[in-house]
Design a protein that fits this description.
Helix content: over 70%
Distance between the termini: 38 Å
Largest sheet: none
Strand content: under 5%
Order of helices and strands: HHHHHHHHHHHH
Structural class: mainly alpha
CATH superfamily: CDP-alcohol phosphotransferase transmembrane (TM) domain
Shape: globular
Number of helices: 12
Number of strands: 0
Number of domains: 1
């Protein structure tokens, strides 16, 4: 589909915001990360403006998002404070590209299933690799075999639990599609558990939303805080305690997520 020059090149940042950040995008339930609300959506149009001057596609921008996510995990292999600091910076860069790829797609009217697929690949793979890197970090990378296999195994276990937890939402959508049910909207009532105990547990979690700590941004920030603490308490012992705590909370989040889905209206005709 041909695109006019005025459509391909925005006349101003204000025009770019109007087209690429409509209210239905900014107000999507659980679709915008808090960093986007806080400041990234204020910055992203300037990078999107620069990207629109090139021939790079929205999927190409998503490729940068994926690469920055992988580099975030790789940075955690640098021992101590500095590796964690680089990971925090790269994690923010990944989220910035995550804002920009959608903005490029909306401006050029080029959204596609491939773009949504690549976006999911980016988030799944990044969070998986971060978990693996945390295991290697707890093993005081470079680790010694077989003495440090416990920590690397826990890192892979954390990665598996995080992937399963993320997959539950996709499995819900697939199940509804196979059953011929319409796509779920953003209504809170659809996600609310119908069983009383599960509903009470869900309300309690709102006071301590530990299930949100497993996004790449939160993981890198938490890891940075732990790295600072480790400067005073010693490493890798601090990272090992951190890894065990993360795994315990991840398992709890997985079980709770499963029960919340099963007791909600999402799987009911």
């Amino acid at each position: 589909m041909s695109i006019s020059d005025s459509r391909r090149r925005p006349a101003s940042i204000a025009q770019l915001r109007e087209v690429t950040q409509p209210p239905e995008v900014r107000q999507r339930r659980n679709a915008e990360h808090w960093t986007a609300h806080l400041y990234l959506r204020d910055i992203s149009p300037y990078l999107t403006w620069a990207l629109l001057k090139t021939r790079i596609s929205a999927n190409g921008v998503t490729g940068f998002m994926i690469l920055s996510g992988w580099l975030t995990a790789a940075a955690l292999l640098i021992p101590g404070f500095w590796g964690a600091l680089v990971a925090v910076i790269l994690g923010q860069l990944q989220m910035l590209f995550d804002c920009c790829d959608g903005e490029v797609a909306r401006w050029r009217n080029s959204s596609s299933p491939a773009g949504h697929f690549l976006d999911a690949v980016g988030h799944y793979s990044t969070e998986t690799l971060i978990a693996v890197a945390l295991g290697l970090r707890a093993a005081a990378w470079p680790f010694q075999a077989p003495d440090d296999y416990l920590w690397t195994t826990l890192g892979f276990a954390l990665a598996l639990v995080l992937v399963l937890n993320k997959a539950l939402n996709d499995l819900t959508r697939v199940a509804r599609a196979y059953a011929g049910l319409p796509r779920l909207g953003n209504a809170e009532a659809d996600a609310a558990p119908q069983q009383r105990l599960v509903a009470l547990a869900r309300r309690a979690v709102r006071f301590f939303p530990f299930h949100r700590m497993f996004h790449s941004v939160e993981l890198t920030i938490l890891t940075f805080v732990v790295a600072v603490i480790a400067l005073f308490t010693g490493s890798p012992a601090t990272e090992r305690v951190y890894l065990v705590v993360l795994l315990a909370f991840a398992i709890l989040a997985l079980v709770g997520h499963f029960l919340a889905i099963m007791s909600s209206k999402r799987l009911r005709a």
